[in-house]
Write a structure and sequence with these properties.
Length: about 350
C-alpha cells in the first residue's frame, strides 16, 4: 500500500478529503508510514497548523492489562481510559508515530507475539513474532524497532539483537551484542543505539553489569563504551541535552543480595565519560522514567521491602536537583517515549 500511496501527489488532494476521508480510513490508520505521509501532506496544505490531538500532547500514559491512564505533567493529574492490551510480565515497549509496540514478556510462558497498539484508534494488531523472550530492551531509529538481549525460556541472558522494520513489517537478525544481558536498558541518540547495564546469565547465577556498548546502524557494528560508575539493572535510561542518564535500579553486594540504588549518573556523549549526579530521594530496585524537556520524571518503580515509589519524582537536569511531587506514582512498569507523547506500559501479573 505504501508503493501505491507514493504514486499519488497528495499535495494536490483537497485537504478536507485528506482529513475527513483518507486519514480516517482504517487501512491507513494501522500503517504508521502511510499515516505519516498523509499527515505531512496535511501539514503542507495548512490543515495541521494547530495540533489536532491536543489531549495527547505532553501526556504520559500508563497501560496495565485493559486499564490505561494518562498523566499530565502540567497539572499532575491522572485520567483513566479503556485500552485493549493483553497482560504480561517483564515486557519492553517503544512508541513510533503514535503507535505503541509492546514486545515480549511472559504470562505463564514467554510471549512470542508483538502487540502494536494504535493510540489514536485504540486498536491492537499482532503482525509477527520476534524471538520469544522477556526482560529485553527496545528503542526506535528511523522507523525500525531495535530489540536487544533479554532472557529466554530457560532464564539465561542472550546477546540477540533484532530489528523490526515498520515499513516492510518484517523482522531481521542483526549483529549480536558484545555481551549477553537481560534487565538492561537502551536508548537512541544521534543515530546510535546505546545499551547499558543489565545482568549476565540469569537471576540466580548472574552478575550485575557496569558494561556499556554502542551500535552503529550504518556499519552494523558494536563497540565498547566506558563503563558506568555503578553496576545496575532494571534502571531508567533517558537522553537529555546530549547526555544519557542512568537512574537508580538494582545493584548487587553478592550472590542473592539485592542492593537498591538511589545513585544517578550521566554519560556525556561528547566527552565519552560518565559523571555522578544528585541521588534520588528513594532507593530503587526498578525505575521507570521519561524526560519532558530538561526534566526527568520518575513515575513508577519498586524498592526493597515495602519501599515502593509512592510519589512521582522530578529530576531537574539544569540545576541537578530532585523534587518530590504530590502526584501518586505507579508500580512496576515499562516505559517508552517519543516526541511530546510519553507512554508507560505496565507489567501485569
Amino acid at each position: 500500500i505504501m508503493d501505491v500511496l507514493r504514486c499519488i501527489r497528495l499535495s494536490l488532494v483537497p485537504k478536507t478529503f485528506l482529513s475527513e476521508t483518507v486519514k480516517t480510513e482504517s487501512l491507513f490508520q494501522d500503517n504508521p508510514h502511510c499515516l505519516q505521509m498523509i499527515t505531512r501532506a496535511m501539514w503542507d496544505l495548512g490543515e495541521l497548523s494547530q495540533p489536532r490531538h491536543k489531549k495527547y500532547d505532553n501526556c504520559i500514559g500508563l497501560f496495565d492489562g485493559n486499564r490505561c491512564y494518562y498523566f499530565d505533567p502540567k497539572d499532575y493529574s491522572w485520567m483513566s481510559i479503556n485500552c485493549k492490551l493483553s497482560k504480561r510480565q517483564n515486557p519492553t515497549a517503544v512508541l513510533w508515530n503514535r503507535v505503541g509496540s509492546i514486545l515480549g514478556g511472559s504470562h505463564s510462558f514467554h510471549i512470542k507475539h508483538t502487540d502494536f497498539y494504535n493510540i489514536l484508534r485504540n486498536r491492537c494488531s499482532r503482525p509477527g513474532p520476534p524471538t520469544p523472550r522477556e526482560k529485553m530492551s527496545a528503542c526506535v531509529f528511523e522507523g525500525k524497532i531495535f530489540t536487544s538481549g533479554g532472557s529466554e525460556a530457560g532464564g539465561s541472558a542472550v546477546d540477540l539483537f533484532e530489528s523490526y522494520d515498520t515499513m516492510t513489517e518484517s523482522w531481521q537478525v542483526n549483529t549480536s551484542m558484545l555481551v549477553s544481558r537481560c534487565s538492561h536498558a537502551s536508548v537512541e541518540a544521534n543515530g546510535l543505539i546505546y545499551v547499558c547495564g543489565g545482568m549476565t546469565r540469569n537471576s540466580v547465577s548472574g552478575r550485575v553489569l557496569r558494561n556499556c556498548e554502542v551500535y552503529d546502524p550504518s556499519t552494523q557494528q558494536w563497540r565498547k563504551l566506558h563503563e558506568m560508575r555503578v553496576a545496575r539493572k532494571n534502571h531508567g535510561l533517558v537522553v537529555v541535552d546530549n547526555k544519557i542518564y542512568a537512574v537508580g535500579g538494582e545493584g548487587s553486594t553478592g550472590l542473592y543480595n539485592a542492593c537498591g540504588l538511589h545513585s544517578v549518573e550521566y554519560y556525556d556523549i561528547t566527552t565519552n565519560k560518565w559523571h555522578a549526579a544528585s541521588r534520588m530521594p528513594w532507593r530503587s530496585l526498578t525505575v521507570k522514567c521519561v524526560p519532558v524537556g530538561d526534566v526527568i520524571f520518575v513515575l513508577a518503580g519498586d524498592g526493597l521491602g515495602a519501599q515502593c515509589l509512592t510519589n512521582v519524582l522530578e529530576y531537574h537536569t539544569k540545576t541537578n536537583r530532585w523534587v518530590t511531587s504530590k502526584a501518586q506514582a505507579f508500580f512496576s512498569t515499562s516505559c517508552i517515549i517519543c516526541s511530546r507523547i510519553m507512554f508507560l506500559f505496565a507489567s501485569s501479573s
